[in-house]
Amino acid sequence: MVEWLSVLSVWMIPALIVFIPLYAAFKKVPVYETFVEGAKEGFGTAIGIIPHIVGMMVAISMFRASGAMDVMLAAFKPMLSSLGVPAEVLPLGLLRPLTGAGSLAYTTDLIRTYGPDSLIGRIASTIQGSTDTTLYVITVYFGAVGIRRSRYALKVGLFSDLVGFAASIAVCLIMFG
Amino acid sequence: MVNWIWLFMIVVSVVSAAVTGKLEAVTEAAFDGAKTGVTVSFGLISILVFWLGLMRIGEDAGLLRVLSRMMGPAVRYLFPDIPRQHPALGYIMSNMAANLLGLGNAATPMGIKAMQELQKLNPDPSTATPAMCTLLALNTSSITLVPTTLIAIRLQYESANAAEIVGSTIAATAVATAAAIAADRWYRSRAVKRPPVPPYAASPPPNGKGEAVG
Q: Which of A31, A59, A67 is the closest to B20 by Cβ?
């Protein structure tokens, strides 16, 4: 099952790149011109996202550099340790929704330090793999269409991050603990 | 809420930096962050240009319509207020499929394109519609079957069984996604009962009219 899935994910993109234009050519779509026409939109969209991402990245980068995050972590630590959860994975719970690159770096560091097959390594891998970077997703998706009032979207995203974090730990404790 | 989180992070950062004597580091971090933001956005350009080009071919060939018809029931449950034949559904489907397969760089352009299609149905372009919030909920919890990057990292550090986390990841991601959908449903039903303060144009789902198509 797993091998089958990873083969599928290797083949998926080349298959799409070939299949879509072939099918379209069959339907008498001028493929190259249509590609260029659609691709034109990409540039403007990416440029439009810049202010949103810069704003978010500045806040996240300051938050990490100031040591404010460590203070918050220290406050949560005793609570988790008493539940039998390795405290080392806690920063990941906080980093994951904020920065994809940052949390990936942290996960890699945990895997290097404790080993990929340790409980910490497994929990970290699961947390990293099971959710996406909520703040980034919201910034990019809403930024691209100029939505300013995101309503309840952020709450839902952060809530599911929290649930995903707890579920990752619980699943790993059951499966590997 | 974004406003408050943003303000909170900045204020707390500067205050705690002042207390711990890290003010210079924080100033530097602010500009570093800005630079990272631009770098990330520039990285998106190539991906967006490429995928949006390819997706336009797919759209013109009618592939997106085929896709949205195939996945009808599930998507209609999640997005009850999008008209059946609307191209947004096709993009949402491609976005979800790309997420499932862990193709992050294909998922983002398709998600953005779906957002742009949803924006066309939006009576108030500066406020998110329920459908947009649902799309976000699905993407932030991102159901992933194969976390390819992580398997690669684990292999690099000589894991005895690099793929063993696939099972635990699927389980955790399923729980997170279920929570996201449930929370989204709950907020959506509340939003319908009590519309937000700025009187947004009464928007009964533009469904029901064009039903007899196809």
A: A67
How far is B27 from B84, CA to CA, in rounded Å? 50
**CB atoms B132 and A9 under 8 Å:** no
Residue A145 with chain B: CB contacts under 8 Å: 112, 115-116, 118-119, 125
What's the complex ipTM?
0.80
Altogether, the residues listed in chain B come to a count of 214
- Tell me which amino acid residue B62 is: G
The whole-chain average pLDDT of chain B stands at 82
Please list the residues that pair with A149 across neighbouring strands. Answer: B127
Burial (CB < 10 A; 0-12, 13-18, 19+), residue A141, is buried
Residue with tokens 């990752």: A168
**What percentage of residues in chain B have a pLDDT greater than 90?**
31
* B171-A161-A92 Cα angle (round to 5): 95
Contact residues, chain B, for A54 at CB < 8 Å: 33-34, 37-38, 41
**A3-56 residue pLDDT tens:** 666 676 667 778 888 999 999 999 999 999 999 998 988 888 888 888 888 988
Residue B153's CB is within 10 A of a number of other CB atoms, namely: 22
Its pTM surpasses 0.90: no
Burial letters for A23-34: b for 16+ Cβ neighbours within 10 Å, e otherwise? bbeeeebebeeb
**Per-residue pLDDT tens over the stretch A75-126:** 878 877 777 788 888 888 888 888 887 888 889 888 988 999 999 999 999 9
CA dihedral sign of residues B74, B80, B82, B85? positive
Give the A:B interface size as CB pairs under 8 Å: 365
User: What b/e sequence results for B132-152 when a residue is b if at least 16 CB atoms lie within 10 Å of its CB, and e otherwise?
Assistant: bbbbbbbbbbbbbbbbbbbbe
Give the pLDDT of residue B209.
Answer: 41
Closest residue by Cα to residue A162 from A115, A116, A137, A130:
A130
Residue-wise pLDDT tens digits, A148-173: 888 899 999 999 999 999 999 999 98
β partners of residue B127: A149
CA distance A94 to chain B (A): 13
Find the closest chain A residue to B189 by CA distance: A152
